[in-house]
User: What shape does this take?
Amino acid sequence: MNGLPAAPDQGRGATPARSLLLRGGRVLDPSHRVDTVGDVLLVDGLVEHAGQPLGDVRRDGRELEVIDCTGQIVSPGFVDVHCHLREPGREHVETIATGARAAAAGGFTAVCAMPNTDPVTDNQAAVGFIIRQALRAGAARVFPIGAVSLDQRGEALAEFGEMVGAGAVAVSDDGKPVASAQLMRTALEYARSFGIPVADHCEEPTLALGGAMNEGLVSARLGLKGIPSEAEEIMAIRDILLARRTGGHVHLCHMSTKGSVELIRWGKDRGINVTAEVCPHHISLTEDAVEGYNTNAKMNPPLRTEADVEALQQAVNDGTIDIIATDHAPHHYDEKEREFADAPNGIVGLETALAVVVTHLVATGIIDYAKLVDRMSCAPARTFHLPGGTLRKGSVADITVFDPAREWTVDPSSFLSKGRNSPYRGMRLQGRATCTIVGGRVVFRLTE
Amino acid sequence: MSAVPNPIGKDLLGLEELTADQIRLILDTAEPFKEISERQIKKVPTLRGMTIVNLFFEASTRTRVSFEFAEKRLSADTVNVAASGSSVSKGETLVDTARNLESMKIDMVVIRHGASGAASFLARRIESNVINAGDGTHEHPTQGLLDLLTLRDRFGTLEGRRVCICGDVLHSRVARSNLWGLRKLGAQVAVCGPRSLMPNAIDDMGVQVFTRIEEAIEWAEALNILRLQLERMQAGYIPSLREYNRVFGVTRERIERAPRDIVIMHPGPMNRGVEIDSDVADGEHSVILDQVTNGVAIRMAVLYLLAGGRPELAESAKSGTGR
Assistant: This one.
């Protein structure tokens, strides 16, 4: 071996087509209002049945595997529209294979990989590389997101058409905002031609310059340069207005402020084509987590205030925020082991997202499990036009089985991701994926 | 050494985390140490055999020299490490630098660093006592303590006294340490300067806010006038030094209109003619050089307490029987 990945023979097709019966779970599929204790039958990689108990299932001599799902929720597979898998360029931090396995362990059957790799995923060959690596990994599906601009420099548009042809499902310069309003306008218009969303990292760069955390009392006390909420909100409303002008679909990444929620609501009330996501950390933690200069609480956008958290939680409930996405951002441990202002932004999230949402939104009574499944599966699949997100007969057999009551303590050293940078270390959370199925094939089972 | 419990904790990282009693204890402990620096032979054997590293990642003359005098007058062995010319300039991380120093079996580290939180970062990773000699725009606790001591010398008590911190509060670690220390000791605290040089959250920090220096002078019994970093103008926080002096500068003319004598303090180094006029700095109500003198005593007290010295023995430490 010369350090290159093995030939693409594992992945799809390695396991012969067979049938899988998920028996006795709570079958929950808000995409067509199914919520019943029953069975799910998967045949040849597609959903054959999802709902009432099936009784005796015979498959005429073909192999039938049965998984007992009693006490579990069986839902369409979770879809993460925002993660960073670091390959190509920083394979010591994460690879597409480790990221896709971490995703499966967190109950995600599909993830969208942001293009801020090295080199940037800004052309059809780079998109194809990600798809090929994902097939080799044979875990969660990985859908590439292409860059808006060449090398994410914010100057010239990347070739959306060719990237879409190679399998890109959206475009984004995530990690950076599209600073130029004119470029954003053109991107929305051009992306509209291909029916894909432009996902924007909303951050007015001059206001956010040098900022390390939310601007407020905590930043003033700690002597850290703050990032005001307005840095996000100014770009959010700019993007919403440009979506109105162009008719393009703008998707606002990782919304973190109460003001942003109000602006999105304003846009949606007017029929503007805007969708938005929130990360588990922004609906569960506040800027107080930074106390003691905790670099695992450093991310961009930063953790905000209690009022922001509450507004975002309500926005998940009322649908103003469409999607829960992780912004999974692994870093090597010693990159975070440094002075706060110099530490990189981001935390891992794939393996804690479900539990954080159950613990902070469902167990607290803010949303029910049907909404959890909608925001983590149906809505992201629908918004990004991906397969999955439903258990309708004939749809792709991407399924998440999770135990909503299971309590566990977060131990980053047990993550399948290479990243260990989690602010939830040592926390007791509720809810865990027990079985993840992609294309009718089990890609993850909780063994403990 | 560091296993011995002491009344102010393992490290001195900031005044925000100290209680009023702990602050008073440090000030009280400093009193007997003032006298040592007045002697002809300015040395007691209190910290003999202890090794202290002064780890300065930012240029500093006053604070570094003050610490070094304090250490030497207590008979500690000291090493000065400056960021330039050390392995730090070769890209070594802070944590590696610290671990290497500690592997040489040291007792204390005095750290000055440009990043907020650098001192607490270090304190959590090494066994030695850590003294924050200024971390970014966070705190400069020994400066805060010496300012408190200077005001207490003047007023007897800080309870109810009105102190205004003037200038670049946004970027000032001295301002933060003063703010917490003064409030804990019962003083009334105000800040004065342009809003662009104040934290956005200043109104929630328990201080009165003046944007007119004349009003601050009318209100205050003491002014602590911060150095205006010249790079703030280049970064666009204020339009010009000339206007700053005309609008916010502490001038003789303004001081003379005050309804009472005002104690004038400045942590240095001064920009004469910018935030403070020379005849105010050199005037009869200036205690700027008393601050410098008190700095050595405060640092001796902090070193002594962190080393496990019992406060009631500070007096006898002078003759070398303490510890």
Notes: The interface with chain A takes residues 16, 93-95, 113, 115-118, 120-121, 135-139, 173, 176, 199-202, 204-205 of chain B (CB under 8 Å). Chain B has two domains: 20-139+295-317, 141-290.
